[in-house]
Write a structure and sequence with these properties.
The structure is a single chain. The chain is of the alpha+beta class and about 350 residues long. The protein has eight helices and 14 strands. The strands form four sheets. A five-stranded mixed β-sheet has the order 3-2-1-5-8. A five-stranded mixed β-sheet has the order 4-10-9-6-7. A hairpin with a 2-residue loop joins strand 11 and strand 12. The structure holds dinuclear copper ion.
Length: about 350
């Protein structure tokens, strides 16, 4: 008796813990259930419609099943097999017609919304952004504005943004749950998706396709700004890319020296440097380092000392830097701001 109680108690506490963990899924700006733009709203409507119908069907089936199990159970003294009944035209027609109608109720809006969303591509007013996924980071290029950045995606609120997505290595998927999506990024191919944030704010983006050891850490941020603020950002960004601000302190200058020698083959600042790793023009203004941890000096140092320990499988090599070199680099990176 005691062990059954214990089992039940264990199950109950597990369910309670699960409920607590799952409440995290309702986080604003990271949830498909709290849509923040027109695409996400349409997708949310379809989710609610299909889930309600399926829940209704599930409940009705369970109620009928329970009723039948109780009503026709074997009673004491009852022997032999009950009378066997086969075939009922009326019932068969009923359970063919009902699912057919339910499927139509789900299919018509689904197809209509799919075509409706597709129709709105190649919108001349939309901001164009080229997204390239890498193991395990995101590159954002604004071809019309002449800007390249990484990890933090800036967009104007209340305006359509058209993304052309691809991958530099394996298949990833571009997903901003609160704004809509998702879409695969395939090497050698491009896909398109348009999204819009209704209000300014910070939204969370995720890679939604298993792509390697650090798939779960392949996050990005979306900063939706008022259109005027976005234009100001774009202007500053473009100016900074053309001519990065000079470094102020001696430590930062030493860091810049190390950066030029050891990092620039892969990382660019402004228009200068390689394209294999994130462009760092506005690094000091990014929310996160490596997409996952708060942009603080201690963590930047940790990352530079051993990148594989932070994000296993990423392509940043361990440069075996001395603590002094790491500090100098951290100082230099902390000067990389666009909004001076
Ligand atoms: Cu990239 Cu998962």
């Amino acid at each position: 008796m005691k062990s059954r109680w214990q089992r039940n108690w264990r199950l109950l506490s597990m369910l309670m813990a699960l409920a607590l963990v799952l409440t995290g899924c309702g986080k604003e700006n990271l949830s498909t259930l709290i849509p923040q733009g027109p695409v996400a709203e349409k997708q949310f409507f379809l989710m609610v419609l299909t889930s309600s119908i399926m829940t209704g069907v599930f409940l009705i089936v369970i109620i009928i099943l329970t009723y039948v199990l109780i009503r026709y159970r074997q009673r004491p003294g009852q022997t032999g097999i009950p009378k066997q009944v086969e075939g009922s035209h009326k019932l068969e027609i009923l359970w063919t017609v009902i699912p057919f109608l339910l499927l139509i109720v789900m299919a018509v809006p689904t197809v209509a919304i799919a075509f409706d969303l597709a129709k709105e591509y190649s919108n001349k007013d939309a901001l164009q952004v080229k997204v390239t996924a890498h193991q395990f980071w995101w590159e954002f290029e604004y071809p019309d504005l002449g800007i390249v950045t990484a990890q933090d995606l800036y967009i104007p609120a209340g305006k359509k943004v058209e993304f052309t997505v691809t991958s530099a290595d394996v298949i990833h998927a571009f997903w901003i749950p609160a704004l809509g999506g998702k879409i695969d990024t395939n090497p050698g191919l491009t896909n398109k998706i348009w999204l819009q944030a209704d209000k300014p704010g910070t939204y969370f983006g995720k890679c939604a396709e298993l792509c390697g050891a650090s798939h779960a850490l392949m996050d990005f941020k979306v900063e939706a700004l008022e259109p005027a603020a976005f234009d100001a950002w774009a202007k500053k960004m473009k100016a900074a890319e053309a001519a990065p601000a000079p470094t102020a302190t001696a430590a930062a200058a030493q860091g810049q020296e190390i950066f030029r020698k050891s990092c620039m083959g892969c990382h660019a600042i402004g228009n200068e440097g390689g394209k294999l790793a994130p462009n760092l023009t506005n690094f000091a203004e990014r929310h996160k380092v490596a997409g996952i941890r708060d942009n603080k000096k201690e963590f930047v140092a940790e990352w530079l000392t051993d990148p594989q320990q932070v994000k296993p499988g990423n392509t940043m090599p361990n440069l075996h830097l001395s603590p002094d070199q790491v500090n100098a680099l951290v100082e230099y990176l902390s000067t990389l701001k666009v909004n001076q």
